[in-house]
## 1
Amino acid sequence: MSDINQLRTIREEILHCQKCPLAKGRKNAVPGEGPSSVDVMFIGEGPGYHENQQGKPFVGQAGMFLDELLASADLKREEVFITNVVKCRPPDNRDPMPEELAACAHYLDEQIALLDPKVIVTLGRFSMAKFIENGKITQIHGKSHQVGKRLVVTMYHPAAALHQPALRPALIEDFSKLRHLLAKEEPIEPKVEAPAPETKPGKQEENPSLPEQLSLF
Ligand code: URA
Ligand code: SF4
C-alpha cells in the first residue's frame, strides 16, 4: 500500500477507534491534517472543544495563535502536518491520562513513520514527553534535540501562552528561531538574506572582502 493510502487507513481507524474511554465522549475524532509527505510536523496535546466539533486540529483560539506563529516561522499550515498525542477530546480539556496516551500512541507512531518529517515540533508537555525523557519545558523550550534521524524542537503549547501571557514572548522568539533552523535544514533552497553582490568582471578583485561581508547581513 502506498504511504498516502496507509495514512488514509490510519485516519479511518482513528475515526472509528474505541481503544480508550475517550471514544465515549467525542463528537469527532481528530486524526490530524496536512500533506502526505512533510518536512515539518507539529504535535499538540489533544482536541479541544472546537476541534471535537469540527474534527480538525487547532481550529480554536490556540489554533489561531498557532497560525500566527507558523507565519512567523515562514510556514504555511498547508505545508506542515498538524496532529496531537491523543486524537479524541479529553472531557473538559483535562490532561490525557497515561492509559489514553498509551492506547493512542501507535497512531502517532505510524503517522510519523509514514510522513517521515525531518523536524518534529512538540507543542506542550505531553508531546515533549514522548521524545525527551524527564525534560522540563521551562528549561528546554525552543531547543532542538537530535532524536534518532529527526530533529525535535520542544515548544510551549500556544494555549499555555494564552493562559499565561508571560510565556507569549518566549513562544514568539522560539518560533523565530525555528525559522532560522528550518532555513539551515533546507540547503536546496537557501533563504537569501542579502542581495547577491554585483559580479561585474574585475569588481571582486578590487574588493575581495565585499561578498563575504554582505553575506553576513
Ligand atoms: N490544543 C491541542 O493540543 N490540540 C488541538 O488540536 C487544539 C488545541
Ligand atoms: Fe482511540 Fe486515541 Fe480516540 Fe482513544 S484517543 S479512542 S485510542 S483514537
## 2
Amino acid sequence: MTRKIIIDTDPGQDDAVAILLALASPEEIEVLGITAVAGNVPLALTQKNARIVCELAGRRDIRVFAGCEKPLAHALVTAEHVHGKTGLDGIALPEPTMPLQDTHAVEFIIDTLRQEPPGTVTLCPLGPLTNIATAFRTAPEIVGRVQEIVLMGGAYFEVGNITPAAEFNIYVDPEAAGIVFGSGVPLTVMPLDVTHKVLTTRPRIEAIRDLDTEVGHAVAAWTDFFERFDMEKYGHDGAPLHDPCVTAWLVRPGLFSGRHINVEIETASPLTRGMTVADWWGITDRPKNAMFMGDVDAQGFYDLLTGRLARL
Ligand code: BDR
Ligand code: CA
C-alpha cells in the first residue's frame, strides 16, 4: 500500500539522496510535499536545495515549502564543515526554476493533517525537528491525526557526532525533539547506530556512478564530497549515509531491526544537551515511545537504493 508522507528536511547531500529514493518509489510512497527547515545550512539554502533535488528527479510538480529559520530556543548551529557552503557541494547543479510555495511549511503540515483522513499521513523528518514541533504546538489537535513519524536522529551506542553526546539533528533543536518524542505519536527512529552501518564503500558508490545517469553522477559526486570528511573522522571505508535510512525503511522495513523502547531528550545539561537517552536495556519503567533501530542489512540497503535511483 502507498503511504502518504511529508518529508521535512535540511538538504544536505544525504537528505537529497533520501528525497530521490522517495521520489523513485511511487509504489510505496506518495510525497504530499517537502518542507524545508534550517539545519545543515540556513533555510534560504535548504529550501532552494530541496527544489534543486526535485528538478534533478524531473519532479517539478512536487510542492516545496519553507519553514522555520531557527530552532525554538537557541541559535542555529549549521554543518558546512560536512556538507560544504551550499549544503549540496560536490557537483554544480542548475539553479531551480520551480517555485517555492507561498504557504509556510508549518501551515502546510497543519492543513494537510486537518484535511487528510486521520491516521493516513506519515511525517518524515530528516533534519532538526523545529517545523514539526511548531506545528504540534500551534495546532495540538493534529497530533493524534499523524499516522507515524519516521525520523533520522539520535544515537545510543554511537553516542554523538556533533558533540561527544549528541547527534546533529537532535542537538540543533533539543526542545523541538522533546516535544516530538513526548507527543505520543508512534515513532520510528533511525539513529547513528544504524546510519553508521550503511557506509559509502567504493564498490557501492561505483555501482551508483555506473548508472551513468544525471542522478547517478550527482549522488556519487555528493558522497565523494562528504565522505572525505567522515572517513578521516571515523577511519572507516566510507561515510554514513544517514537520511536515506528513513525512506529505505518506508520501502523495505525488513532491512532494519530494532527495539521498542523509551527515549528521552536531554535539554538542560550543557555537557550532554541533545542527547537521546535511550533505554535500550529496559532499565527503567518509563513508557516506550519509540521503535529505535539498531541494525540494518547494509548491502540490501545499497541494492535497493541503486535499483531505485536507476529509475530516475
Ligand atoms: C544528520 O545530520 C545532518 O548533517 C545529516 O543530513 C543527517 O540528517 C546526521 O547526524
Ligand atoms: Ca538531514
